Amino acid sequence: MKYLAINSQLFINNRNRFISKTQRNSLAVFNSNDIYNTGADSTLPFTQHRDIFHLSGVDQEESILVIFPDCKNELHREILFLKETNEHIAVWEGEKLTKKRATEVSGIRTIYWLDQFETIFRQLVIESESVYLNSNEHLRTANSMETREDRFVKKFLSDFPIHPTLRVAPLMHQIRSVKDSIEIDIMKKACDITEKGFRRILNLIKPEVMEYEIEAELMHEFLSNRSKGFSYTPIIASGKSACVLHYIENNKSCKDGDVILMDFGAEYANYSSDLTRCVPVNGKFSKRQKEVYNSVLRVKKEATKLLNPGVFLNDYHKQVGKLMEEQLLKLNLITTKDIQNEDSNWPAYKKYFMHGTSHYIGLDTHDVGSWTEPIQENMVFTVEPGIYIPEEGIGIRLEDDVMVQKNSEPKNLMENIPIEVEEIEDLMN
Q1: Consecutive H or E run containing 11
Q2: Which of 32, 99, 217, 396 has its CA 20 to 30 A from that of 151?
Q3: What does pLDDT average to over the chain?
Q4: What are the CA-CA distances from residue 259 to residues 243, 330, 343, 397 (Å)?
Q5: Mean pLDDT confidence for 358-385
Q6: Contact yes or no for 413/188 (Cβ under 8 A)
Q7: Residue 142 has pLDDT above 80, yes or no
Q8: Which element (helix H / strand E) includes 31?
Q9: Which residues pair with 37 in a beta bridge?
C-alpha cells in the first residue's frame, strides 16, 4: 500500500464499538471484495470491502473477519482468516500479510489461513445463537452484481437453513457514520493532498487547455503524495458542461470567458475527500459569473452552520432550499410568482439547484449513515450547493468536507483550500 501504517488502535476501537451494538452470543462475519475481471486475463485494481477494512485494517483480497465476543474460547472471539503466502505468490504477486504482520495491523491475536475456515467457522456457528450477515444496503446502490459477500450469504443459508440470522448493515452504518479521531486525521490527510492538487492546477488553467490535462496534473500530484488516486471519477467541466451534474468525459478545450467546474478528491488509506471548486479559465470572473459564484458561496456558508447535533438531514435540506430560493430571487432566476405556483414536491428553486446539499463521507465518498436519525458529533458531511444556468452557460458548485462538532460550528477539513473570488483570481494572475 502507498499509505503509511495506520495506528491499530483505530481498528480495535471500531470493533469495540461494533461489539457494543451486537446481541448476546451472536457472531458476525465479514468478507473482502472480489478482484473483478475486465476480460481475458486482466483485472481491475483490488479495492477492499469497506466494512472489513473498518474493523480490521486488512487491505488484502480473500480475507475473512469473524467476531464472536461471547465465544467460550477466548482466542476465537476475534479471528482473521487470510490467504497463506508462499514463495510463488511472493514472486508473482508480492508478499501477502504474515500472521505476525496481520496482528500488528489489526490488533487481532488469532490469525488462521483460509484452508481452516470451514472447520472452525462451523464450530463457531453451532456455538452461537445467531449470526450477523452482511449486504450492501446503501440507499443509492443498484445491487446488480453478485459480490463475494452475496455468495457467502447464499452458502450460509444453504448450510445452516434454520440458524437465526441478523442484518449487520444497520450496525455498520451507525458506527461508520461517527468517525474516530484517528479517522478524522486520515480524512484530513486526504483533504490536504486534494489541496495540493488544486493549487497545482491553478497555474495550468488557461484558454485552450484540455480538461483531461487538468485531470492528469491532479493525478500526478495525488500519486506523488501516497494517494492511490481519485476518490471517485473526477468532473472537469468547462462552460456549458458544468451544467451536466455527472459530466465525466473531460475531453473538451477550456475556452476564454468560461468558468470551469472541477469536482474531485484524493483518496488516502481508503478514505475519501470530496471537493468542488469553480475558476475562470482566463483568470478573471465576469460580473455575472461573480454574482452567481458569490450567491452559491453564501448558501454554502449558511448551510454549513446548520449542520449541528440533533438536526435531521431532511429538515436540513429543506432549510438549505429556502436559502437558495432567496439567492435565486436576487439573481432574477425565479420570481415570487414561481414560488407561489410551485409544486411542493419540486420547489421553484429546483430548476437551478436540483440536487441535495450534503451527504456522508468517509470510507466511501457517499458513505453509509442514517437519514432518519439525528446528526451526531464527529459525523463528516460534504456541503455542496450549486446553481446551474444552461441558458447562460454557467454552472457553479462549491463543496467542502466538514466535521460536526458539539458546541461550535462544523470544522471545515478543507478550510485551507482557496474559495473566495479574490483568492482564486490572485492565485491565477
Answers
A1: helix 9-19
A2: 99
A3: 96
A4: 11, 21, 31, 11
A5: 97
A6: yes
A7: no
A8: strand 26-31
A9: 43
The answer to whether 14 and 56 have CB atoms below 8 angstroms apart is: no
Integer CA distances (angstroms), 162 to 126, 131, 416, in order: 11, 11, 56
Radius of gyration over every alpha carbon of the chain, rounded to an integer in angstroms: 24
The three-state DSSP-derived secondary structure of 380-422 is EEEECCEEEEHHHCEEEECEEEEECCCCCCCEECCCCCCCCHH
Model pLDDT for residues 160-189, shown as the tens digit of each residue: 999 999 999 999 999 999 999 999 999 999
What are the pLDDT digits (tens) for 57-109? 999 999 999 999 999 999 999 999 999 887 777 777 778 999 999 999 999 99
State the pLDDT at residue 172. 98
Under CATH, what is the fold of the domain 181-428?
Creatine Amidinohydrolase (3.90.230)
Hey, what's the cell of 196?
495540493
Residue 89: predicted pLDDT: 78
Report whether pLDDT(310) > 90.
yes
Domains 9-177 and 181-428 share a fold: no
Nearby residues of 72 by Cβ (< 8 Å), 6 or more positions away: 127
Please identify which residue in the block is written with the cell numbers 446551474: 388
Judge contact between 21 and 167, C-beta under 8 A. Answer: no
How far, in Å, CA of 64 to CA of 80, rounded? 6
Longest dimension (CA), the chain: 74
Distance separating alpha carbons of residues 322 and 324, to the nearest angstrom:
5
β-pairing, 37-39 vs 26-31, is unpaired
Q: Report which secondary-structure segment, H or E, holds 188.
A: helix 181-202
Domain boundaries in the chain?
Answer: 9-177, 181-428
User: CA-based angle 157:159:163, to the nearest 5?
Assistant: 60
Residues contacting 41, CB < 8 A, separation 6+: none
Nearest in space to 418 (alpha carbons), one of 429, 406, 404: 429
Q: Which of 73, 3, 67 is nearest to 31 (CA)?
A: 67
Say how far apart CA 6 and CA 8 lie, in whole Å. 6
The pLDDT, as a whole number, for residue 14 is: 98
Where residue 12 falls among pLDDT bands split at 50, 70, 90? very high
Cβ neighbours of residue 351 under 8 Å, at least 6 residues apart?
333, 334
CATH architecture of 9-177: 3-Layer(aba) Sandwich (3.40)
- Cα end-to-end span (Å), the chain: 38
Quote the CA–CA distance of 120 and 123 in Å, as a whole number. Answer: 5
Which grid coordinates are listed for 32?
A: 473482502
